[in-house]
Amino acid sequence: MAFTEEQLVRYSRHIILTEVGGKGQKKIGQAKVLIVGAGGLGSPIALYLAAAGVGTIGLIDADVVDLSNLQRQIIHHTSDIGRPKVLSAQEKIAALNPDVQVLPYQENLSAENALRIFSDFEYIIDGTDNFPAKFLINDAAYFAKRPLIHAGILRFEGQIFTILPGASACYRCIFPEPPPAGVVPSCQEAGVLGALAGFIGTLQGTEVLKLILGIGKPLTDRILKYDALRTQFREVPIRRNPDCSLCGMHPTIQTIEVQEQPVCEIDPASSLHT
Fold it and tell me: Per residue in 224-270, pLDDT tens?
């Protein structure tokens, strides 16, 4: 892959970084990243990965743009209300960086299509807002052997951690099952600070770029929690659970399962007070 003069200028601030350089930028250009969810988290992730020159970005989301989305889902504009989110996002990415190929999937992720879609990408990013999807993404990434960057947000708090299947703690190591109904409020019930989605989503984008480049220390075996009201970070150490039903010594989950528990955007992390 030889850079054009325009690309040399576009990616110059990357190329002058010794940790990136021309070789690293080529790796970014050859990378294939799937973003599950084109909403609050998916919006900044998609924009920054497109700006960085990620060669192929997949977007999966069955929803259409709603007026209430625009407070935090910055990839969508007022004129996009009623349009499929993946097509709205594809249009903005194309306008930002024509180097990037966008593969839109206007459908819900399911047990039936997850492995088929995941197999076409090298890295998976969880930008979803409900527990069934998060468990499904975790399990599918494990079976597909794809690195996964997980995150969740609610009110003024967010969290993020990276999962390397078979090498680090997975989502089920920490949260074996969805919480009981009513324990965690929905976004509609509790609200979410719009800028928080941008902040946590940008951290997810940073994590996947580090993985693509093979630089730094991935956010594995630790959850990074952020309290926007206090402008305070807290790191919670985690470890693989030998009794994990998915990645433990004697796994009981052999196929992808869907667990019904319709709640929104942050995980049971509020119960992690260690």
Answer: 999 999 999 999 999 999 999 999 999 999 999 765 544 444 444 43
8-state DSSP, 67: G
The DSSP code for 232 is E
Per the CB < 8 A criterion, the answer to whether 8 and 15 are in contact is yes
Q: Is 49 left (phi over 0), alpha (psi -120 to 50) or beta?
A: alpha
| Residues sharing a CB contact under 8 Å with residue 17, sequence separation 6 or more, in sequence order | 24
Question: Contact at 8 Å (CB) between 55 and 32?
Answer: yes
Here the tokens at position 260 are 């019904």
> Per-residue pLDDT averaged across 141-148, rounded?
98
Closest CA to 273 of 226, 218, 236: 236
pLDDT computed for residue 267 by the predictor: 44
C-alpha atoms less than 13 angstroms from C-alpha of 193 in its C-beta half-sphere:
13
Residue 83: phi, psi to the nearest 5? Answer: -85, 155
CATH 3.40.50.720 fits 31-271, yes or no: yes
Distance CA 174, CA 245 (A): 11
Q: Strand (E) positions, the chain? A: 32-36, 56-60, 101-105, 123-126, 148-154, 157-163, 222-227, 232-237
Q: Is 155 left (phi over 0), alpha (psi -120 to 50) or beta?
A: left
The CB-side HSE value for 100 (13 A sphere, CA atoms) comes to: 30
156: helix, coil or strand?
coil
Among residues 142, 132, 137, the alpha carbon closest in space to that of 114 is found at: 137
50: exposed, middle or buried (Cβ count in 10 Å: 0-12, 13-18, 19+): buried
Domain ranges of the chain: 31-271
